[in-house]
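To whoever picks this up:

The parser on our side crashed when reading a file containing two proteins. I've narrowed it down to the boundary between the first structure block and the second sequence. Both blocks are reproduced below exactly, byte for byte. First block:
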Amino acid sequence: MPDSVSKMTLDDAINAAELARANLAVAQRNYDLVKAGAWSYDVRSQEAQYNALMKGAASARALLGKYTVGAPVDGVVLSITATIGSYVSSQGTLESYSAGAAPLLVMGTAEEYTAVRCYVDEILIAKLHDIESLEATMFIRGTEVQIPLEFVRVQPLVSPKIELSNQRTERVDVRVLPIIFRFKKPENTLIYPGQLVDVYMRVP
């Protein structure tokens, strides 16, 4: 995060990296010139200087990387839990709702399909004879949008229900079976990860 360290410290790290890179380039050129026709002592001296500058450049890059948050792959930032002035550690940052550690960033990939996880009440599991042939439709709350879903897989572990919709008639003392579907995001329809939707399934 930009404000997790002072700007002066970050600027010093950037300047050190740039200086080491420039010195490395000069040493490389001098080394090439000397190696073309010089005494063996000069060649060894330039090699030693070149290796020293290589290590200096690596050290400067490591220092700069210490103050940089990066991702190994391209993706979309879904959530940033830290704010300006927040303390950030290797475990993440303090999440005010749960008073526990939360990831600094939550990222996802920009894929063609979007997944939706449905939770089937344990008393209805016995009716799912042919799960792979399920026909499901998703309804976005507050709209009349209906999106057909494509079956992906079942998470074969029945677990306590943790996703709540805050409906007065909702039961919370049940166990559920997660089923994953996917769909192509329709045009001119706003759908975001984490959004609560209604899914209706029909057993063939």
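<<boundary where parser fails>>
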Amino acid sequence: MLPRDLSLTPVARTAAVQTVADPRQQAFQRALATQLGQSLQAEVLSKLPDGSYVVRVADMAARMPLPPNVQPGNQVPLTLVALNPRPTFQLATAQGGQAFAEAGPPLPEGASLQSSPLAWLEGKEAAALSRASALLAKTQVLSTPMGADGAAAGASLSKAGQALGEVIAAASANGAPQTAAIGRTPLLGTPGANAGQIAAALQQGIEKSGLFYESHVAEWAQGTRAQAELAAEPQARGMAPPADPATAQLINLQLNAHEQARVAWQGQLWPGQEMRWEIARDAPEGGSGEHAAGGEQAQWQSSLVLRFGQLGEVAAKVVLSGGQLHIRLDAPSSARPLLEAGKARLANALEAAGTPLNTLAIHGHD
């Protein structure tokens, strides 16, 4: 195990001179191909004169940077977060933060560290980019040489890392970060639309919010999405540079949506009808997709907040879990009798739509 006084504050990059085309590098990547996202144990075999280490991981020897007080024989816990351009591992720091290290085959006999630099990033800077850490690891986050004493010589972020750092800083520059995509125009022209029309309008509001623009561009490239649909999104209408607060807020929302599996939209459902809508997916334990290893389904949550002239502010939370639908309504106590009177009508409508209502709870407040 790692020594108790281990202090790993930097983020580290590999010291491998081989290119990706190197057969040993390719063999190393193939050996790890099925381990992406998995926790692994690396056995420290030896410490090299330049300060890097040779470790055994996935039954193969690899060269990677580690804290200077790690000793041969130690077991280092790693998590594989990327395969390209070189296998990249996540390490836990002594301060509870995150660090990353690229790894490759050991240097050939006679190779020097000068041709294969290491680089370090201080923990505070890494924490500032924690939301995009896996992305940064995949895009060669760091690129600086090491000094003769093994210390960093002018550590710096790559262009991709710098851009993301600027975006996150710009997103929080004007106080609290934006928490929802903002709808600039009402989703419906007038009130009185039926359920199908409202559902279609809500779907369009999310699709055109810009939160999934890159995915939509990929669909367009594959011929499954029309270019006219892209033109309705903010990015296609022309946006300011990433450091602009409004643009940075949108990019930050995209990062949060990817990390937290949650999106939010705020605007007008129809003129004068304000609404905030959130959608979230909770992955089942043991899995990150629709199903866990044991077949358990993900849980979807949808929350709405609406203001009505007669009812006041009504908050609705809808939970779909394993085919079961649960709804909770929170409204002023004066509106509760009217909502109670409509319970049977709501249940019948959901039954007819093929989604039976399991529970409906109505809570009143003063």
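After patching the parser it read the second block fine. The chain has ten helices and 15 strands. The two ends are 57 Å apart (CA to CA).
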